[in-house]
Amino acid sequence: MATSSQVLKETKTTDCKNSSNCITCYLPIEIFIEIAARVSSHSLADLYHLKLTSKEIINITDDDNVYEHACLDKVPFFPDLIPKQDSFLSRCLSSGNLESLYRQGMKAFFCNSKPYEEGLDIIRMAGQKGHDRSMYAFAIIVLILKCCNNNARIGLLGVEEFEEALRFLRMLRNQKCVLKCRNDVRSFVSELSSEMQPYRLVDQAPTTHLCRRVTCKNTWRLKIGIWFWLTHDDDDENDPKMCENCRWDHELEYFCAKTLYIDVPYLLYD
């Protein structure tokens, strides 16, 4: 079965015989689609202006690759959809747009009464493809389920999920974007709370810690003196002497306190 790009290529090749202004007479359709995908990955406004140039470009840019890479940073989590917006976002999701998958997975996990696995699997899939917010969301959900004694959902987890969660966090830490991802995920959970009354993930502070060493002398707590939150310069500091497990214990406790509004009495912050 011919793809949309192949059909367009055949159509435009025929059209070129009848038009000296045909764009694809001078530029292969695949290259123009790649250019449009790059434009969409940086700015939907620029993509919109590109589409305004001609009907031919409107047809060319109606390609899954363009929707897959579309940047949705400026699109509200819960926009007041009109048909065109709904169609656009649905096309992004069906095209495998990672931000769309992340949003779909978060809503499925937090806001449905049963299919928790489906939502977490979607978030995980987007994380495996490199979406940083999905990596953080998957990791923090796994840590919450593991450390907060949430028996209702603990069946979702295995050793593989836990190890992947830690691997995601290490990758984000190496990229120095843990704080940014946390803030983005917090914003989304906040939107879920105001718009859809999500299922409460956990009702108590972590009861289990990743660091089991009572006499641990290389903890995150000692590094920062007290457990106030860090600046962008200090976040994700790669100190080889620092206990990694303490770092993620702190991350989990902070997220529970600041995002899920769980009382964590031993966490001191501004």
From TrEMBL:
It comes from the Eukaryota. Residues 83-189 form the At2g35280-like TPR domain. This is At2g35280-like TPR domain-containing protein. The lineage of its organism: Eukaryota, Viridiplantae, Streptophyta, Embryophyta, Tracheophyta. It holds the Pfam family TPR_27. Transmembrane segments: none annotated.
